[in-house]
Write a structure and sequence with these properties.
The protein is mainly α. 43% of the residues lie in helices and 8% in strands. The protein folds into three domains: 3-32 and 47-157 and 234-311, no CATH class; 158-224; 441-544, 2-Layer Sandwich (Alpha-Beta Plaits), CATH 3.30.70.20. It has helices spanning 3-30, 52-55, 58-68, 75-88, 91-96, 98-108, 115-121, 130-143, 154-184, 190-205, 215-227, 235-240, 242-251, 297-301, 328-347, 368-374, 380-384, 420-424, 435-439, 460-464, 470-474, 514-518; strands at 256-260, 307-311, 390-392, 405-407, 451-454, 482-490, 496-504, 527-530. Strands 1-2 form a two-stranded antiparallel ribbon. A two-stranded antiparallel sheet has the order 3-4.
Length: 544
């Protein structure tokens, strides 16, 4: 391969990276609640394949199948990516993966490492085996029905970090800036400011400012891992990425590889200067095929033309390594760690024997054990929720359910005419649910996520004799799940009046949380929703 053709391939790779990164952000921005139709109804379809990247993730598809023995949605895309990896190697890591591209960009902007220091950092290091240990441990736990692989799967990690932390923070800053310009800026800027607000509202700002629990934790983890690429090029890809490890193992089947000519090499090591995978492209040492991202920087940089990518390359003394050199003890230790996690998570939580009151799952969610087997914590359902009612779990679902979606009514409520979260879940943790099924249709009962309970010690009509009908006004079911009884009360001065006190029809209540969200007792609501009576669980049934 000559330098000119190598330069064209590198340029094609850069264009591919830019295209897929922009496509990723475009689809992420479209993962939002559609506007009302002309008839006033809510649209429950997003006219873009916003699940596309998750459906093309072979690791998420494999984990979903291993844990729940069910094929994930859009499995064809994951199969296509796997087939491409078998054909040419880790093309997804170097040409497609948006987190890999971001890592590369962060490390390339005014790079701290230059010259000999950069060459040394790009040599193959022993700690690059970490990601294979992570993959083995996560898959071992997944085989025993503990799905934690989404914590470090690059696509789930990136979507979760951006949706729950980075984009809400950006929206907050933009709102403050636009509000300041509108209120205090010169008059001639108000028109462009209003236009900017309209243009940014759908992709970033949203209908209301999003707030998510522990967003700062998610954001700090993301920023820290991203900026480690300033010290070690593509640190995430080399050290932590379990998808990259899986791709590396699959790439060993590829007939496409690097051919080295030691007789032409003068030992300048320029090929290491921009090597993204740290896969030892320099002649005289074995090429680590499992680490190569197919960036083609080495072949373009080599002034002697001693490096060439081709199908069925010649392999003299630079024979590729057969498998990552983990060692038997490391493999067994990784596997044992993954297995050991299972009883620690399962037996260490009382939630398996006592349902958690605040663990309210989205409508259409499967039973909790199956939910935890399938959910990859990608946050797609939380991103699309119009009221931001779906929040990343912290303690509500135990350590096993960390970052999985739970409904927090004090932050938002489940919109009665929305089922978008069920249409976006890539692993069927939230099964596709029709609007008729959720609302109950004309005569049926709505899908039950939980039940509202009235705290009479805080409810204004009960505790203070003050009229309040807010919870009944906000109740979306028909007929309403909250009804009133007129009772006579006596005030402090002896005056007798009739007021309405609320009651909950537990059969009609769907646990949407609208009543708790709107309750005028703002600190701790006088009416609160718990998971009791949730339809998906016979163990948590309210009525015998």
């Amino acid at each position: 391969m000559n330098i000119a053709s190598g330069t064209r391939i590198v340029r094609a790779r850069q264009i591919s990276q830019a295209f897929f990164l922009l496509l990723f952000f475009f689809l992420l921005f479209q993962t939002t609640y559609p506007e009302r139709t002309n008839e006033g109804a809510y649209a429950n379809e997003i006219p873009y394949p916003v699940r596309g990247f998750l459906e093309a993730d072979p690791l998420a598809a494999l984990a979903a199948f291993v844990a729940s023995h069910r094929v994930a949605r859009g499995i064809g895309w994951a199969i296509a990516v796997t087939a491409g990896t078998v054909l040419v190697g880790r093309f997804f890591c170097g040409w497609v993966c948006p987190l890999g591209t971001l890592s590369h960009l962060i490390g390339s902007i005014h790079p701290r490492l230059k010259g000999a220091r950069r060459i040394e950092k790009n040599r193959t290091k022993g700690w690059q085996k970490w990601k294979y240990a992570i993959l083995i441990g996560f898959l071992a736990a997944t085989a025993l029905s503990v799905m934690q692989i989404g914590l470090l799967d690059p696509l789930c990690f990136l979507i979760r970090s951006l949706s729950l932390s980075i984009l809400p923070a950006l929206a907050s800053v933009l709102r403050l800036l636009l509000d300041f310009v509108t209120g205090h800026g010169p008059t001639f800027l108000r028109g462009p400011t209003d236009a900017a607000f309209q243009w940014l509202q759908a992709p970033i700002l949203g209908l209301t400012q999003p707030h998510f629990q522990l967003a700062w934790v998610i954001g700090l983890i993301f920023i820290a891992l991203l900026f480690l690429n300033r010290t070690i090029p593509r640190f995430w890809c080399r050290a932590l990425c379990p998808l990259g490890a899986l791709m590396g193992l699959i790439s060993k089947l590829s007939p496409f590889g690097l051919e080295k000519r030691s007789d032409l090499c003068d030992g300048c090591n320029i090929c290491l200067l921009d090597c993204q995978g740290a896969d030892s492209p320099q002649p005289g040492v074995p090429w680590v095929q499992t680490e190569c991202h197919l960036c083609f920087n080495c072949t373009t940089a080599c002034p002697q033309g001693s490096l060439t990518f081709k199908f069925f390359p010649g392999v003299p003394e630079e024979r590729t390594k057969a498998v990552p050199d983990l060692g038997r003890r490391q493999v067994l230790a990784s596997f044992a760690t993954g297995v050991a996690i299972v009883p620690l998570l399962k037996s260490g939580s009382v939630l398996s024997v006592r349902p958690s009151p605040p663990r309210i799952r989205p409508p259409g969610s499967v039973a909790e054990d199956l939910f935890l087997e399938r959910c990859v914590k990608c946050a797609e359902c939380m991103k699309v929720c119009p009221t931001h009612a779906l929040q990343p779990a912290w303690t509500e679902a135990g350590l096993e359910g960390l970052w999985s979606p739970v409904l927090v009514p004090r932050i938002g409520y489940c919109e009665f005419n929305c089922v978008l979260c069920s249409t976006l879940c890539p692993t069927n943790a939230i099964e596709p649910t029709t609007l008729e099924r959720k609302t109950g249709g004309a005569d049926g009962y709505p899908f039950k996520m939980g039940t509202a309970f009235i705290d009479k010690s805080r409810c204004l009509p009960y505790a203070s004799g003050v009229s309040c009908i807010v919870c009944e006004e906000w109740c979306p079911t028909s007929p309403k799940a909250i009804w009133f009884e007129e009772v006579e009360t006596v005030s402090r001065d002896g005056a007798r009046t009739m007021i309405k006190v609320p009651h909950v029809d537990v059969k009609r209540c769907n646990g949407c949380g609208a009543c708790e969200y709107a309750c005028p007792v703002r600190d701790l609501a006088a009416i609160r929703v718990t998971s009791a009576g949730e339809e998906r669980s016979a163990d948590n049934a309210l009525l015998l």
